[in-house]
Specification:
The chain is α+β, with helices and mostly antiparallel strands. The chain is 30% helix and 35% strand. A hairpin with a 4-residue loop joins strand 13 and strand 14. The longest helix has 25 residues.
Length: 323
C-alpha cells in the first residue's frame, strides 16, 4: 500500500494512494516528471484514492446529465461496467476534492490476467484509475479536454503537431528533438481552446527503435523513453499543424471554420484520447452549460508531407516559423 505526491501544471498538489504494488511501480515511471515524494502507508480502503487540496470550479450545480450521471450535494458517482470488471468512481467536492475508486473483478478478469502480460494489465489500470481521473481535474478546472498531438517548443514559440496515426507526427517530433527543440508532450495534450497544457510521460517504443538515451524501462517487447522537458503553466500556442501524407511538400493555412471539425475527426480516431474525453464528459458538459470557451488565437495549417521527406519537412516548418 503506497502513496505518491505529485505537482501538476495548473492543478498543483495531488496525493495518490494505490493499493496494488504492481500498479504503484508502473505509476511511478509514468508520473516520474511530476512526483515530489513517495511512501508506504497502511490500510488503504479503496483500490485507488486521489486527494486534491485546491482546485477551481468544484461548486457544481445539482443537475442530472443522464440516468447514470448525477451531481447532487457536491458529489458525483460514476460506474463503468464491462464484461471483466466494474469500476466505481466517487467524487466528493468540499473544501478539497477526494476521489475514491473501487475495482470489482469478474471471473473473466482472471482469465484475461492469465492471457495478458503484467505490463498490459497495469497499463490499462493506470489509464482507468489514475490517468483519466487526473485528466478530469483539468476538465473541471477550466474545461480542458484531450487533443491528439505533440506539444513542442521551438526556440520561443509553441506549436502543436496533430494528425491521424501514421502520418509522421512522431518522426517529425523526433527530428525536432535532435535539433535541440523540446517535446513537452508527445501524445497527451490538453486544451480549452485558449491555451494548451502538455503532460510529459514516457513514450512507448518498439525494441527495433534505435533510441539508446533516456530509457527508463525495457522488457522483451518494448521500451519506455522519458524526456524531462515540462512547463509549469498552460501555454499559448502560436501554430497548430494538421499533418497528412501527400506527394508534394506544402504548408497551407486553414479556414478557422473547419478547424474544430478537424479536431473532432482526429480525436475521435485516437482510441485513448476518445476514452479520456468520454470519461471527462460530465465535467465538460456541466461547464458548457454555464460558460463558453474562447477560440484560441493560434493559426492553423494543413501540413502535407511526402513519404521519406521528414528532414525536408522540418526545414519547411522552421522556415515557415521564421526561425
Amino acid at each position: 500500500m503506497h502513496n505518491i505526491k505529485c505537482i501538476f501544471p495548473l492543478i498543483g498538489n495531488i496525493s495518490i494512494d494505490i493499493k496494488s504494488s504492481d500498479l504503484f511501480e508502473f505509476t511511478k515511471r509514468q508520473l516520474k516528471n511530476y512526483i515530489i515524494s513517495q511512501s508506504s502507508i497502511p490500510n488503504i480502503k479503496s483500490f485507488v484514492s486521489l486527494n486534491v487540496p485546491s482546485i477551481n470550479n468544484t461548486n457544481f450545480e445539482d443537475i442530472t446529465l443522464s440516468r447514470e450521471i448525477k451531481f447532487k450535494d457536491n458529489k458525483l458517482n460514476i460506474s463503468k461496467k464491462s464484461k471483466i470488471q466494474t469500476l466505481s468512481y466517487k467524487y466528493n467536492f468540499n473544501d478539497s476534492l477526494t476521489l475514491n475508486i473501487d475495482l470489482k473483478k469478474k471471473s473473466l478478469y482472471y482469465l484475461k490476467s492469465l492471457l495478458s502480460s503484467k505490463y498490459s494489465i497495469n497499463h490499462i489500470l493506470f489509464y482507468q484509475t489514475i490517468l483519466y481521473p487526473i485528466f478530469s481535474l483539468y476538465a473541471m478546472q477550466d474545461s480542458y479536454s484531450l487533443v491528439h498531438g505533440s506539444l513542442i517548443k521551438i526556440n520561443d514559440k509553441y506549436i502543436v503537431l496533430t494528425g491521424l496515426d501514421g502520418v509522421g507526427k512522431s518522426s517529425l517530433s523526433h527530428e525536432l528533438l535532435l535539433m535541440d527543440h523540446k517535446i513537452l508532450a508527445d501524445n497527451f495534450v490538453l486544451s480549452n481552446g485558449k491555451s494548451f497544457v502538455g503532460l510529459n510521460m514516457p513514450i512507448r517504443l518498439d525494441l527495433e527503435n534505435d533510441t539508446k538515451e533516456n530509457i527508463i524501462y525495457e522488457d522483451d517487447n518494448l521500451k519506455e523513453v522519458l524526456f524531462d522537458f515540462k512547463e509549469d503553466n498552460a501555454v499559448v500556442v502560436d501554430n497548430v499543424y494538421f499533418l497528412s501524407i501527400s506527394e508534394n511538400l506544402a504548408i497551407k493555412e486553414l479556414d478557422k471554420n473547419i478547424v474544430t471539425q478537424n479536431w473532432h475527426l482526429i480525436n475521435n480516431g485516437a482510441g485513448e484520447i476518445l476514452e479520456a474525453n468520454l470519461f471527462n464528459l460530465p465535467f465538460l458538459y456541466q461547464n458548457s452549460l454555464t460558460k463558453s470557451s474562447d477560440i484560441g488565437s493560434y493559426r492553423s495549417y494543413s501540413f502535407f508531407i511526402p513519404k521519406g521527406k521528414i528532414k525536408e519537412a522540418v526545414e519547411e516548418l522552421i522556415c515557415q516559423l521564421n526561425i
